[in-house]
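This section describes the prediction task in plain terms. A model, or a person checking by hand, is given the sequence of a single protein chain and must write out its three-dimensional structure as a string of C-alpha cells. No templates, partner chains or ligands are provided. The sample shown here is typical of the held-out split.
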Amino acid sequence: MRAAAASVLAVVALGFAAAQTLPVAPAAPAAHRLPNGMAVRLMVLKEVNSREAKSGDRFKLRVDSPVILDGVTRIPIGAIAWGEIVVAKDTGAVGGKGRLSARLLYVEAPDGRIMLSGSQDRQGKGNTTGVVLSVIGFGVLGLLNKGGNAVLKAGDIVTGYVEDPAPAPDRPQPAPPSPGE
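The expected answer:
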C-alpha cells in the first residue's frame, strides 16, 4: 500500500515538475495594419503605350520609396507592384489622340500582397494641324497622318494607395537611419 501511495505521489510530483518546465509561448504582438489610403510611391519599370498595349495587359512597377509605419519599414524599396491596362486606344488616322487608362492592383510585400487603388489616364497629342497641312500638300493621303500615342514612360512616378486596412508584413525590416543620424 505504501508502495502504491509512493508511486502516486511520484507521478503527481513528476506531473507538476513537467508542467513547470514547459516553455510558455510569448503573447503574439498585435498585428499592425497599414491604414486605408496610405500612399505608396511607385515607379513604372517598362514603357507602356497605347499603340502596343491592350485592355487586360499587366505591367510592372517597383516601390520607389519605403513605406514606414511605427518607425519600421513595412514595404521596402524595390518591392514589385502590378498595374493593369483598362483602356488602350490607338491614335487611328486623321490626327486622333491615343488614350491609355491603367489601374493599380497590388504590391508584393515581404509577407504577401497588399491591395492598392489608384489609376493613371494618359492622352497623346492630337495632330489636327499636321493633318490639315498634309491634306493640302498630299491630298486625301494626308488624312492618314496620325496623332501621338499615350505613354506611361519607364521611370514615371505614380502614387498608389492602400485599398483596405491591410495587415502589415509580420517580418518588418528596420527603417533606414534618418539623414541626420
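For orientation: The longest helix spans residues 2-21.
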